[in-house]
Design goal:
A: mainly alpha; Rna Polymerase Sigma Factor, Chain: A; Arc Repressor Mutant, subunit A; 2 domains; B: 2 domains; 4-stranded antiparallel sheet
């Protein structure tokens, strides 16, 4: 993947109307942006449409990029808002984390993840999280973003991000242990 | 730093983005607390599992082609981008080609044809159908303006068809039945049932 410095150069070129620069930026960031969108939507076709919309907006708005953040962070911010817009258009209610918010400090989740079914379990449990929790943990673990970057993408204070990731983490562990049939400490 | 604050920062130690005094403090806490160490190990395992999971196929070069077509269309409608400095700010219009691309992806996802890159996707290049030239089109249709991707997808699925070509400059899409000749009559019936969602239906085979 192109470095942020290279991506900034591409953004400048895009702002000047360089389509090849847009193509280069698309190739550099299409996969992580799509995965991020897809992690928040069940419909791969809608996710593809939103990815398209994101890069159309990059094309139209590149001149507004002020360089105060990483290019990837700026583009994830566009994607974040477009997914929220998509949810609103459909009037869809977020799933609310469906497992009890019971603190779970057990290390048993490590054992759960050694299971052959671990991938399916993680995917299942991520799907149970409500959107802002899922988005936060996805950015932290799929994309290795700092909490400051996640806060910028989501447009919320850093403390909110820490709280969201904290709860997402707890719920994930609780869910994983539940799937493994383990007793969760009270 | 309280224990809760330490726990809030553990995910960012797990993804190795914590630095400075925060990192030092969290690392010290983990070193002296077995429960925190176990939780950190669990978080690292979750992160590793998430990152190891094979990413779902993204639109790739097909999506890029769609993007470039739409940009060209917008530019054609509004004039060169350079005429609207400093940013590429042009009116937003959602064009039907987006729906076509989505439907093509759908057809591919149905396993009727395997899309393979003709070149390394990161390097660009053409793409083709692994199944060769694919089946001959049985129908050529033009969808009505405003037909949504979901409607288009529904029509194609209901008719048992896949997109094998198009869109042409006039907006024709070439469709072939998934079940070959046996699916022709049912496909025609389903297309007719779509009513005003399809402007034109032509059968291309006698």
């Amino acid at each position: 993947m192109a470095s942020d410095q290279q991506q900034r150069a591409l953004m400048s070129a895009i702002a000047g109307g360089d389509k090849q620069a847009l193509a280069a930026l698309y190739r550099a960031l299409e996969k992580p942006v799509f995965r991020f969108i897809r992690s928040r939507l069940n419909d791969p076709f809608e996710a593809g449409d939103i990815l398209h919309d994101v890069f159309m907006e990059v094309w139209r708005s590149a001149g507004r990029f002020e360089g105060r953040s990483k290019v990837q962070t700026w583009i994830f911010g566009i994607a974040y808002r477009k997914v929220i817009d998509a949810h609103r258009r459909r009037g869809r209610m977020d799933v609310t984390d469906e497992f009890p918010d019971t603190p779970d400090d057990s290390p048993d989740a490590v054992a759960c993840l050694a299971s052959a079914e671990e991938a399916e379990h993680v995917r299942h449990c991520l799907g149970k999280l409500k959107d802002d929790h899922r988005a936060a943990i996805s950015m932290a673990f799929y994309d290795d973003m700092t909490y400051a970057e996640i806060a910028e993408v989501a447009g919320v204070p850093e403390g909110t991000v820490k709280t969201r990731v904290f709860h997402a983490k707890k719920l994930l562990m609780h869910c994983l242990e539940g799937l493994m049939g383990r007793r969760v400490p009270a | 730093m309280t224990r809760t604050e330490i726990e809030e920062l553990l995910p960012f130690l797990a993804n190795d983005t914590l630095d400075g005094p925060e990192r030092a403090e969290v690392e010290a806490a983990v070193a002296s607390d077995a429960a925190l160490a176990a939780e950190l190990a669990a978080l690292k395992a979750i992160r590793t599992r998430m990152q190891a999971e094979e990413a779902e196929a993204s639109p790739g070069e097909l999506g890029l082609a769609r993007l470039m077509r739409d940009i060209d269309r917008e530019s054609a409608e509004t004039g060169p981008v350079a005429a609207t400095p400093p940013a590429n700010v042009v009116p937003i219009s959602r064009l039907r080609i987006w729906q076509v691309a989505a439907a093509v992806v759908l057809a591919l996802a149905l396993g009727q044809a395997l899309l393979v890159p003709g070149a390394d996707q990161t390097q660009g290049g053409d793409f083709g159908l692994a199944s060769g030239d694919g089946p001959d089109a049985a129908f050529r249709v033009i969808f009505a303006p405003g037909v949504t991707e979901a409607e288009m997808r529904g029509i194609i699925l209901d008719a048992g068809l896949e997109i094998v070509g198009g869109p042409s400059a006039l907006g024709f899409y070439d469709l072939a039945p998934l079940d070959g000749e046996a699916g022709m009559d049912a496909a025609r019936t389903a297309l007719d049932a779509a009513g005003p969602l399809i402007e034109t239906i032509e059968e291309t085979q006698d």
